[in-house]
Amino acid sequence: MGAINGVSARPLRIIPTEGGPVLHMLRADDPEFTAFGEVYCSEVEPGAIKAWKRHKLMTQHFIVPAGRILFALYDDRPDSPTRGEAQEYELGRPDAYSLLTIPPMVWYGFKGLAAHPSLIVNCADMAHQANESERADPAASFIPYTWK
């Protein structure tokens, strides 16, 4: 699987403190930051697959502060130099605590890998709008990816 144009994963700081660590996510002076729209959490049950989705305008900034998540991405943007590429990222603590940035029009989905519910936090660059996203079945034939 190759790298998808515009997608990035950057390791984040975990600062040990008494009583529990501070987990960084995104700052206004980070290179990935464009605008603030909303922040929300999504819980993912063990083995559950939530796929496929893409946003027409929104950029996603995901972290996994609890548990373990496999993210799968697919680029079918007509003018993209990585059109046809699929990519995987496994995020979670303690060794894969990273910020995953997904630009508009890239298909993505995720699967819970931990033995307990995992938590995804998304800091999107715009507020949710129902008609701004598209969905496809986890087994969509136009996406060359098989969930493990």
Describe the secondary structure blueprint for this structure.
Elements: E1 8-11, E2 14-15, E3 22-23, E4 38-44, E5 49-55, E6 60-66, E7 68-75, E8 86-92, E9 98-102, E10 106-112, E11 118-124, E12 133-135
Antiparallel strand pairs: 1-9, 2-3, 4-11, 5-10, 5-12, 6-9, 6-11, 7-8, 7-10
User: Which band does the percent of strand residues land in?
Assistant: 35-45%
Q: What percent of residues adopt helix (DSSP H or I)?
A: under 10%
Strand sequence of the main sheet, in spatial order?
A: 1-9-6-11-4
- Largest pleated sheet: 5 strands, antiparallel
- Work out the number of β strands: 12
Average pLDDT value?
Answer: 96
Distance between the termini: 15 Å
Low-pLDDT runs: none
User: Gyration radius, to the nearest Å?
Assistant: 15 Å
How would you describe the shape? globular
What is the helix/strand order? EEEEEEEEEEEE
* SS element count, helices: 0
SSE-based structural type = mainly beta
Task: Give an overview of the whole structure.
The protein is built from no helices and twelve strands. By secondary structure, it is mainly β. Strand 2 and strand 3 form a beta hairpin.
Précis, in short:
By secondary structure, this protein is mainly β. The chain has strands at residues 8-11, 14-15, 22-23, 38-44, 49-55, 60-66, 68-75, 86-92, 98-102, 106-112, 118-124, 133-135.
Features:
single chain; 148 residues; mainly beta; 5-stranded antiparallel sheet
